[in-house]
Design a protein that fits this description.
The chain is of the alpha+beta class. It is built from 8 helices and 8 strands, in the order αββββαβααβαββααα. The longest helix has 25 residues. It is globular.
Length: 245
């Protein structure tokens, strides 16, 4: 297989993964027509990303690999027809500042966003979501502006630090990881953990928090992300083609 063939294969795989991430998040109600996912093309300064919402661009659940576009780290369109999202600098500046990051998810997911507004700690209350979110570690950026400039993107990167998650307070969240699958699953786990925390806050009672020792042990036994990704993808496929009863 030639280098050109390899590059083509990577492009197809990444376009598919970015499209699937949007489909999963939309199916679970974590994005609507807004929100976007991206993946860095390995060894390059190129990024596969969902295009900007427009009258021609449908909801993420209806977008496939062919609709994904490619931009560079300056936000310039390299491949595709539609424009990139207005908040492309969330993605490009994270890739500039975090060489370890290969995928970025930005959502306006409801419960995690509300918890961020409350400035409440995200406690490790549920076993698997706590492991996937590194014990509920999430940074905070007290800015609700749209990230439409490189400077705002750099401010977000500074707030994110070396974490996998950040609240954009009054706006939404960012999830980053080394794969598209992991960044997506972490965003889902965040919402699950946020829902548990919010319900506990509403009771006024003191919950049992999972200890560091338990979290460390759980980290060795929790199933790999690939299985969860496959499960969520199956939900999308089943909703698109429901079985006949």
């Amino acid at each position: 297989m030639t280098a050109v063939d390899d590059a083509h294969k990577i492009g197809v795989e990444l376009r598919t993964q970015v499209a699937q991430a949007g489909q999963i998040l939309h199916h679970l109600g974590l994005v609507d027509y807004l929100g976007h996912c991206s993946a860095r093309v390995p060894g390059t300064d190129l990024v596969v990303i969902k295009p900007k919402h427009s009258p021609r661009t449908r909801s993420p659940e209806q977008l496939g690999p062919a609709e994904m576009i490619v931009i560079n780290l300056d936000g310039e369109l390299v491949e595709g027809v539609e424009r990139p999202p207005a908040e492309l600098f969330i993605h490009t500046e994270i890739y500039r500042g975090r060489p370890d990051v290969r995928a970025v998810v930005h959502t306006h997911q409801p419960t995690a966003s509300v918890l961020g507004l409350l400035d409440a700690p995200l406690k490790p209350l549920l076993h698997v979501p706590s492991v996937l979110t590194n014990g509920g570690r999430i940074e905070k950026w007290p800015v609700s502006r749209l990230v439409t400039t490189p400077e705002l993107g750099r401010q977000l990167v500074a707030a994110l630090g070396d974490s996998a998650l950040c609240h954009l307070q009054g706006h939404g969240i960012v999830s980053v990881a080394d794969t598209m699958q992991r960044a997506t699953v972490i965003a889902i786990a965040l919402e699950q953990l946020a829902e548990a925390n919010l319900r506990v806050l509403q009771t006024g009672l003191t919950p049992r928090v999972i200890s560091d020792d338990e979290l460390a042990d759980l980290g060795t036994t929790v199933a790999p992300v690939a299985g969860r990704w496959a499960y969520y993808l199956q939900l999308v496929e089943q909703s698109a083609s429901p079985r006949n009863s």
